[in-house]
Amino acid sequence: MSVVQVSSQAQGADSERLSTPKLGWTLDELARSLGVSVPFLRLEVKRGRLRAAHLGRRVVLLDTEVRRYLAEASDRAA
Question: 22 pLDDT band (50/70/90 cuts)?
Answer without folding.
Answer: confident
